Amino acid sequence: AKIKGMGGLPLGTSGEVFVRVNDEKTSTAMAFLLIKRGIIPILSKEVKLLKKFEIGAAFEIREERENDVVAVDEVFEELTVKKENKFTLKPLVGFSDEEIEELYEKIELL
Question: Is pTM, for the whole model, over 0.85?
């Protein structure tokens, strides 16, 4: 029998990324996309809806460190060029506000 899951890679297979949590909805959607790609999110503050994806251990909450790979919740309309000496991921850059809202609603139902 086939079991339907959320899809994606096993958690932890793609390393860790520091998630700068700003807005509850966009940060949840961003972290969820990272989780689906096997990345363990390290959060700047708690995101309640992500608790359901903590498999075996809680996601770490801490301050950003100098050598962190960072994920930010920028969308195309807010895209800025910043000179940072960090590798920065922007997983929501191709999403509209409506698509982010739709993804957030799907995450709530999982």
Answer: yes
Residue 83: pLDDT above 80?
no
pLDDT tens per residue across span 9-55: 888 899 999 999 999 999 999 999 999 999 999 999 999 999 988 87
d(CA 16, CA 62): 13
Per the listing, tokens 């309309």 go with: 77
Q: Which residue has the tokens 């520091």?
A: 18
Counting other chains too, the contacts that 71-75 makes at CB distance below 8 Å and 24 or more residues apart are: 71/17, 71/18, 71/19, 71/20, 71/30, 71/31, 71/34, 71/41, 72/20, 72/22, 72/30, 73/20, 73/22, 73/23, 73/26, 73/27, 73/29, 73/30, 75/26, 75/100
What are the beta bridge partners of residue 43? 19, 61
